[in-house]
């Protein structure tokens, strides 16, 4: 394991349920996406990630059967005791294992939802759970103002689980800063932040740097922009593809290397759905970006509201 590879994590959002918003799923997954197919695929991804030196796994209650698949993989590998697990609560998967479901997940940040979902996560992952995030916390859901919920989350903290928030949307920075202000019993409640950061949408970077400065862990998700920053993606920005060609790197490696280069990033998640993608993503850990490339990467940034509007319009497939 290299130091760079150990900074990577593997996320199961795209592999443990039949539909998601990542580009190229028809080519990546094919038509066979029943529970057993995706269980086998998930375990192959986990095997490849572990072999590559990755020791952090990200799941969520809404990622289909991600927690179940991960728990099964851990049972089949009792020798593995050095993997840290982060999960999330606040969405329920309601897609019925159908690609064409009209609704795939439902958001609920109530105390009742937390009580229900933390019990479900605990039944599957037990003491292996290291971090529990509010899934896509935003000001609109009220989770950052609900003092009864904060007290319940503090109880989880007192049992040794790190409590955090994941963020989405153009106001990610505001969410991170508001979460940093919340204390329970004189101590910060949220000490882990999982946010979307990539070269197309880097606007949360300063807030994540502030979070890291307090001692919080920062986890980067969507470093390849839901597949837009991968080789051959039909919606890859031409400037990004041209820059990758200029520096002689696959686009996914350029994107992940840019995220790994952020000094505040504790982990950068791969969302690979097969071992070859894991291998390519992991190779980014060995990439040293030339200083001359940094301004060109910065020039790829899109206006945040436009980025998130386009992401919201992506089709589940």
From TrEMBL:
It holds the Pfam family Aldo_ket_red. Residues 43-299 form the NADP-dependent oxidoreductase domain. It comes from the Bacteria. PANTHER family: D-THREO-ALDOSE 1-DEHYDROGENASE (PTHR43312), NADP-DEPENDENT OXIDOREDUCTASE DOMAIN-CONTAINING PROTEIN (PTHR43312:SF1). This is Aryl-alcohol dehydrogenase-like predicted oxidoreductase.
């Amino acid at each position: 394991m290299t130091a760079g590879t150990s900074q990577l994590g593997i996320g199961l959002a795209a592999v443990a349920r039949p539909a998601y918003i990542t580009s190229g799923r028809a080519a990546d997954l094919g038509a066979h996406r029943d529970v057993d197919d995706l269980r086998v695929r998930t375990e192959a991804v986990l095997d490849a990630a572990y072999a590559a030196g990755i020791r952090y796994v990200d799941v969520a209650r809404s990622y289909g059967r991600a927690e179940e698949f991960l728990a099964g993989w851990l049972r089949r590998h009792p020798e593995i005791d050095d993997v840290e697990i982060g999960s999330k609560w606040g969405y329920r998967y309601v897609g019925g294992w159908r690609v064409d479901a009209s609704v795939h997940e439902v958001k609920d940040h109530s105390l009742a939802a937390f009580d229900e979902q933390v019990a479900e996560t605990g039944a599957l992952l037990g003491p292996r759970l290291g971090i529990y995030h509010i899934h896509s916390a935003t000001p609109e859901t009220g989770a950052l103002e609900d003092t009864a919920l904060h007290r319940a989350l503090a109880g989880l903290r007192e049992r040794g689980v790190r409590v955090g928030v994941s963020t989405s949307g153009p106001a990610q920075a505001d969410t991170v800063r508001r979460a940093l202000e919340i204390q329970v019993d004189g101590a910060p409640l949220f000490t882990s932040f999982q946010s979307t950061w990539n070269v197309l949408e880097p606007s949360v970077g300063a807030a994540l740097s502030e979070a890291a400065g307090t001692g919080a862990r920062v986890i980067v998700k969507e470093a390849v922009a839901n597949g837009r920053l991968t080789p051959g993606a039909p919606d890859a920005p031409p400037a990004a593809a041209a820059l990758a060609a200029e520096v002689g790197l696959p686009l996914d490696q350029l994107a992940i290397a840019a995220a790994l280069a952020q000094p505040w990033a504790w982990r950068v998640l791969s969302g690979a759905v097969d071992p070859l993608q894991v291998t390519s993503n992991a190779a980014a850990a060995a990439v040293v970006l030339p200083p001359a490339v940094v301004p060109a990467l910065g020039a790829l940034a899109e206006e945040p509201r436009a980025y998130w509007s386009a992401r919201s319009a992506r089709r589940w497939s």
